[in-house]
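Good morning C.,

I know you're traveling, so I'll keep this short. The sequence:
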Amino acid sequence: MMAGFGNGTRRHPRSRGRTWSRTGPDRATLGIIGVICAVAGFFALGIVLGPVAIVCGWLAMGRSWAGSRPVPALVALVLGAIDTLLAIIWLAGAATPGSGLF
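The tokens, ready to paste straight into the viewer:
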């Protein structure tokens, strides 16, 4: 009889204790990546690395302002915003390279 064939996977489809998808980096890693991008953006490619830091910080915070905010995620978000703002000002010509701002 084949009545019991395959029933074991129906009761426990995943291993014990693992109830989420682990296809991407976790929140702590995203926060650290965001901080690295934000700091590197002050020196080169701020217009690209600033928004990347903002996105990494936002994803590390769990895409929500509610609840506890991990420190690396908040630092990445704030530094990424400052970095992006400075890069936009520099690109707009309000502060030319060599004027003392950079």
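Safe travels,
E.
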